[in-house]
Amino acid sequence: MSEKITLLPDHVANQIAAGEVIQRPSSIVKELMENAIDAGATNINLIVKDAGKTLVQVIDNGNGIPHNDLSLAFQRHATSKIKTAEDLFSLKTKGFRGEALASISAISHIYMVSRTSKDSMAKFIKIAGNKIENEDFKVAPLGTSFSVKNLFYNIPARRNFLKSDSVELRHIIDEFNRVAIAHPNINFSFIQNKKEVFDLKKTNLRKRISSIFGSKVSSLLVPIQENTPVAKISGFIIKPSGSRKSRGQQFFFVNNRYIRSPFLNHSVNSAFEGLLSSGYHPGYFIILEVNPNKIDVNIHPTKTEIKFEDEQSLYSILRSTIKHSLGIFQVTPTLDFDRDSSMDTPYSYKEKTPSSPTISVNSSFNPFKEDSNIYSIDSKESKSQIEFESESTQSVIDILDFDFNPKQIKVFQLFKKYLVTALPSGLMIINQNRAHQRVLYEKLLTNLSLEKTPSQSLLFPYKISISPKNLIYFFENKTVLEAMGFEFKLEKDSKVINLTAIPILFDKNQLDHLFDKFFSDEYRFDGFSKADAISKQLCKVLAISNGKSLNIEEQQELLASLFTCKEKNLSPFNRPILVNLDPTEIDKKIN
Q1: What is the spatial distance between Cα 270 and Cα 272, in angstroms, rounded to a whole number?
Q2: Distance (Å, whole) CA 389 – CA 396
Q3: Rounded to whole angstroms, how far apart are CA atoms 275 and 327?
Q4: Taking a C-beta distance cutoff of 8 angstroms, is the pair 538, 402 a contact?
């Protein structure tokens, strides 16, 4: 039996529309900042409380909204940007659907004050759930102040789907960065819970990128420039040496609007072909200027997807532009990213002629003695790695028994990735990277349980330059890091951290690598707690990598440390650490 078709009530329709446009606090930040830019603002201030759940406020010095239009602006499909359907194909503004303000007002409390240059007084309006509760006049500067409070107050289910404050704040910062990068000619500020996150002054694109992502990025930027009838291309790509496993530094802007485009991203990747190690992605800040008649931005509610009229030509032009810049700035690929530099001939030996090795004979060697070795090699390290004792006298130490000396373990390294040792139960093969992750992870967690974590003071403070986004992440986890044995002092501007002590577990020569990765999105993991998540993060960064050659002492120490761990079979990321081949399995392989 079919149900009768009825029209949805306005408040229900508005809430459904809001769900398409407003997904989280960062969606409001995007819409309000873009409206401020469309209003001609040169100063835009973003104020956020509790990661936008309690307050999102955008204050601008733009043109403002006339008194008579203020209440109309909150009606669905009310817009000053377009008049006819044809206007959709010549858009020069960011907003045009007329849905943003109506959607925001449907699921929050709004307090808005706006004044134009023609008005001596500003008009104030208060709205909750699309209903106007109050209108009045007040004294205010030119421009608009738009406050959104109590997001999703009337849709508890939607509010429950919001993530933690730290996650929602990162989304807000991402949206803020996208708008700020696209408009370096505008002053932006960002305050979260009364603390300044960004204060960006009018500048050029390179300096704007550096002020957001840190000064280290500036030296990695390679400019690109091309003018064609299809598009004007400008911006920067990041040198291959600055590539990452995450895609956090990939930005496309079309007519100053941030977009996502897998198609164009593929073009960039093809230009970097042969320049990046496997699993790494290029970074870029690419600005495209395209005739508005040649694109369609009206294919997604958030306007982050664009359809191009001549995609194939744009793909080829972008690819050739990037390859040209890589060539001009002599960014060439390494022939073999997996080459072991330790095998290179030292510079001081390059002109020397190699001499033939001398052969020495052990005159006392007797193969019939019981304690003789089947193989005897002069090199101490080589002997340790491939020495096997005769089966009749072999005394294999069970490394599951903790009463042993690590130096007694018979072990050798295989493919610079695995450690192989013999047990009474068979042959054990251990992944050195995962084993070291497990060792570090458990030691870090153990340190957290100590009243006083052992640490080593640094002779000179180690300075860490930190971006505003990473500064938030640092403060979120500062207490846990200190409990692990790190000691910090912050400079007054809070953009430089002085590291004065580190856990004895860490090598001070690894600090650059450690903190570069610590603040990288690709090395952040979920955990049961902050302590668990940070321990995973640090062990991932510091663990011995596969492909690294270990001497015999390092091999023995790693195995000894692994078998004192509470969990020996799985890495902190639930990956198998070892496999044990019993005699039956070995017999099957040989027979």
Answers
A1: 5
A2: 9
A3: 12
A4: no
Residue 62, domain CATH: 3.30.565.10
310-315: long-range contacts at Cβ-Cβ below 8 A with a sequence spacing of 24 or more? 310/230, 311/263, 313/230, 314/230, 314/231, 314/264, 314/267, 314/288, 314/290, 315/263, 315/264, 315/266, 315/267
Q: Which residue has the tokens 């990025």?
A: 217
Q: Is residue 565 part of a domain?
A: yes
> Which residues constitute the domain of residue 94?
10-202
Indicate if 182 and 217 belong to the same structural domain.
Answer: no
Tokens of 93: 């503004």
Instruction: Indicate whether 366 belongs to any domain.
Output: no
148 lies in the same domain as 185: yes
Q: 366 is written with which tokens? A: 């007797």
Cβ count within 10 A of residue 228: 12
Listed residues 328, 358, 384: the one ending a domain: 328
Classify residue 390: in a domain, yes or no: no
Report the number of distinct structural domains present in the chain: 3
In a shared domain, residues 198 and 301:
no
**Do 534 and 459 share a domain, yes or no?**
yes
Whole-angstrom distance, CA of residue 419 vs CA of residue 432: 6
Structure tokens at 215: 């000064």
214 & 178 share domain:
no
Query: Domain check: are 15 and 48 in the same one?
Result: yes
Q: Give the span between the Cα atoms of 466 and 268, in whole angstroms.
A: 28
Q: Of the candidates 301, 328, 355, which is a domain's last residue?
A: 328
Do 152 and 244 belong to one domain? no
Count, residues in the chain: 591
Residues 480, 454 share a domain = yes
Could you read off the pLDDT tens digit of each residue along the chain, which spans 591 residues?
Answer: 456 666 656 656 665 555 556 889 999 999 999 999 988 999 999 999 999 999 999 999 999 988 888 888 787 655 555 445 454 555 555 554 456 788 888 889 999 999 999 999 999 999 988 888 999 999 999 999 999 999 988 888 888 888 888 889 989 999 999 999 999 999 999 999 988 889 999 999 999 999 898 888 888 999 999 999 989 999 999 998 888 877 888 999 999 889 888 889 999 999 998 888 888 889 999 999 988 888 776 555 555 777 788 888 999 999 999 999 988 876 655 444 444 444 445 544 545 566 666 666 666 655 555 544 433 334 344 333 333 333 333 634 444 444 445 566 788 888 889 989 887 777 889 999 999 999 989 988 888 777 667 788 888 888 887 777 788 788 888 888 888 888 888 776 667 888 888 887 777 777 877 887 787 766 666 666 778 888 888 888 888 888 888 888 888 888 888 888 988 889 999 899 988 888 888 788 787
Written as six digits, the tokens of 303 are 């306007």
Beta strands in 206-267 (DSSP E): 221-227, 232-238, 250-254, 257-259
Q: Which two three-digit tokens encode residue 499?
A: 């590291």
Distance CA 499, CA 488 (A): 5
Sheet containing strand 122-128, edge to edge, reads 131-138, 122-128, 109-115, 143-149, 55-60, 43-49, 187-192, 195-200
CATH code, domain with 588: 3.30.1370.100
DSSP 442-501: HHHHHHHTSSS--EEEEEEEEEEE--HHHHHHHHHHHHHHHHHT-EEEE-TTSSEEEEEE
Task: List the CATH number of the domain containing 222.
Answer: 3.30.230.10
Residue 362 within a domain? no
